């Protein structure tokens, strides 16, 4: 059955403004059920958690439902879903609690800075996995030399937020686990682009952000509750010491958490399906991935034929994300030109700080990033291509 793109697009009110939203890698638009869930939570009345009255019970239920939904999305355990404002904040919080002076951490130059800097600032010894600047691949073989018995954490992304590269995370995880190290996998860019199974990836920690997959601005890190029991983050004396609450600071955005659950339900229902929510998610996200991949091959294929366009990376396995420059124009000028033609793309280093350094474009404005989400269609792609063609 073809991916029901018309029906999917119709659930996103923002798409009716006529712009081609190719900026999903920086944050997706939000479908009606998510907007409604957040508004309903506020309209119905919510209290802080753990109280004796119904509005508080509603918040208790919202938090529990959100953990269950996020666990379904990534194939994790609801009892190990840590919720917070965004991935960066949660990673800073966890990095210092997991590793420190005397430990080694292995980082990659493929990663968004949010899975780099929190690990470089905790006093551990850093070892770097390098990226091939031409292909944009992260060769696995180098990890055998980087990981040893002192390695506490291997932090790596499941997909590059600019090149789309999907490194061989399970192979890296095998090397890490053989040495007794923990895998901290940044799934922020990968999660919206296909089904996720954090156990198959070998992720001890899997980080994701709901605003990249049609939800509100909420982040989550998912781990085995038994592993979380062994970690003691800084926390208030008065706050719960249970897992995962131990890792959550202050009062949560309860209405937004209800929006996260609605986003997961939306993702599970993009194509008709039966079975558990996890099963429907796997089917629906596989269909979305297939749809995005086909559309992306048109986008990439056409850009490849344009002599005035420089494309960065050509990874074998990638998300529907492309990063390019246009001769004679700065990335910002390209983005402004496209914005005038009703196309939203991002320009700059996009926080891929190490990677844009490797590509030699960090100090020259980076490049232009266009990314597909499950709600983009052929007209979005055509409009981008026409706009770029005009810059020849
Ligand atoms: C791959 C990747 N990792 C991490 C982040 C940071 O996520 P957050 O904004 O939730 O802190 C981003 C944000 O763009 C990202 O694309």
From TrEMBL:
NCBIfam families: am_tr_V_VC1184. Residues 21-384 form the Aminotransferase class V domain. It comes from the Bacteria. InterPro entries: Aminotrans_V_dom, Cys_dSase-rel, PyrdxlP-dep_Trfase, PyrdxlP-dep_Trfase_major, PyrdxlP-dep_Trfase_small. This is Cysteine desulfurase-like protein. SUPFAM superfamilies: PLP-dependent transferases. The lineage of its organism: Bacteria, Bacillati, Actinomycetota, Actinomycetes, Streptosporangiales. It comes from Nonomuraea maheshkhaliensis.
């Amino acid at each position: 059955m073809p991916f029901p793109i018309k029906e999917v697009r119709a659930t996103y009110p923002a798409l009716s403004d006529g712009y081609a939203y190719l900026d999903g890698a920086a944050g997706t638009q939000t479908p009606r059920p998510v907007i409604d869930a957040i508004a309903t939570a506020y309209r119905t009345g919510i209290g802080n958690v753990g109280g004796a009255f119904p509005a508080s019970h509603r918040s208790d239920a919202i938090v529990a439902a959100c953990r269950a939904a996020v666990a379904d999305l990534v194939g994790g355990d609801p009892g190990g879903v840590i919720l917070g404002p965004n991935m960066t904040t949660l990673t800073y919080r966890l990095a210092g609690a997991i590793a420190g002076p005397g430990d080694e951490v292995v980082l990659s130059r493929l990663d968004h800075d949010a899975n780099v800097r929190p690990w470089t600032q905790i006093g551990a010894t850093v070892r770097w996995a390098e990226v091939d600047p031409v292909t944009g691949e992260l060769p696995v073989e180098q990890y055998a030399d980087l990981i040893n018995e002192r390695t506490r954490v291997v932090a790596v992304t499941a997909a590059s937020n600019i090149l789309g590269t999907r490194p061989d995370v399970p192979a890296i995880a095998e090397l890490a686990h053989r040495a007794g190290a923990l895998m901290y996998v940044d799934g922020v860019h990968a999660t919206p682009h296909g089904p996720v199974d954090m156990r198959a990836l070998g992720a001890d920690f899997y980080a994701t952000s709901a605003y990249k997959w049609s939800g509100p601005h909420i982040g989550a890190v998912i781990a085995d509750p038994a592993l979380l029991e062994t970690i003691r983050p800084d926390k208030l004396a008065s706050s719960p010491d249970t897992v995962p609450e131990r890792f959550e600071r202050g009062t949560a955005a309860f209405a937004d958490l209800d929006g996260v659950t609605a986003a997961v339900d939306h993702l599970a229902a993009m194509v008709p399906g039966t079975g558990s929510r996890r099963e429907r998610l796997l089917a629906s996200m596989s269909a979305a991935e297939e749809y995005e991949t086909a559309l992306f091959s048109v986008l990439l294929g056409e850009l490849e034929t344009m002599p005035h366009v420089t494309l960065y990376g050509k990874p074998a396995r990638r998300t529907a994300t492309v990063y390019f420059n246009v001769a004679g124009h700065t990335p910002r000028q390209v983005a402004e030109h496209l914005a005038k033609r009703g196309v939203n793309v991002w320009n700059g280093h996009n926080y891929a700080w190490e990677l844009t350094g490797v590509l030699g474009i960090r100090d020259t404005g980076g490049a232009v990033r266009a990314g597909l989400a499950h709600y983009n269609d052929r007209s979005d792609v055509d409009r981008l291509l026409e706009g770029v063609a005009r810059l020849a």
